[in-house]
Each structure stands twice: as C-alpha cells, then as structure tokens.
Write a structure and sequence with these properties.
alpha+beta, 188 residues, 7 strands
Amino acid sequence: MYRCETQDTGRRTQNRNYALCFLYFLLSFIIIQLSDAEAVDSTAPTSVRIKDIARISCAYDTQLHGYGLVVGLDGTGDSASTTFTTQSVLNMMERFGISVPAGRLSVRNVAAVIVTAELPFLAKFGSRIDVLVSSLGDAKSIASGTLLPTPLLCAADGQMYVLAQGAVSVATALRKITLQLDASPTED
C-alpha cells in the first residue's frame, strides 16, 4: 500500500497515491482476466451465477446452544450421582408446583443434554433446522427419548432464537444424535 511520506506535499502526494493504487488494481484485473480467458474453453458457456461467486457482506449463520432434558429413556438415563440432572428435574418439578424430596427422585429415565444448532442466515420464522443433542452426564443412551422444550440461545447476544423439542433418534451410520423436531425461530 502506498502512503504519504511527507506532510508538506499533502494533496498532490495523496492524489498520486490514489492514481497508483488505481493503476495497480486495473493491471491486476487485466492480468486475471487474461489468464482466465486462456484457461477457459471457447466452446464452454461463460455464464456464472452470482450466488456462486458472491457472498452477502456480514452474512453468517448463527451458532445456537441450550441446556435441556431428554426424558422417557427406559432406564438408560443418568445415574443418581449426576447431581446436575437431579437438580434440573427438581427445578422443573417445582416450576410445575410439585415438590419432591431429592432423596426420593430417580433420574434413570432422564438425561441432561446440551443442544447445539446452526441457524442459517436466511432462515424464516417457522422453518425447521437440524440440532445436535449431546449427553452431559453418564447416560448409556438417549435414543428413543424425547427432548423437552429447550430454548436455544445465540452465543453472541444471549437472546433466544429457537425452541427445540421432539423425539430423539440416533443416526446409526454417523453415531451422532439428531432430532426430528419442531424447532423454529422465535418471533421478536
């Protein structure tokens, strides 16, 4: 990049620098065009879709994450020694107006999970997205469980963008857990 070296010539140096930068850009553009023209077969079509070569400035997918519970696990959930699962179930029950002594609660059918997703930049309200569910505790399996409604927050601003819920199914080929769910962006 060209820079003005002296203060006294001021405007002339700045104009000369702009002219040199423009010439440098123009020369680079011509060289690229000539090299591309030689590489392209003259019989091939030369049309290019804008979406193949351009990207919207500042357009990016939004990373989302949340903490939730998978229930209905038929004894394959977290053990009683996983205290955060027990505490989460106790808190949920209290919100429903049910008080259960901690010693009387069994969480073998429940697993605490982290849910992550990527919200596409152009997602519209009501569109479905894929989410990844990962067990936090010592659950043997979360297959065939049900993810309770789990708010997914944006890592950047902490706002809730999606509410994920639904049946958990295990992809056998990838050994990753995916959901068939009703996850949709929330209205502001």
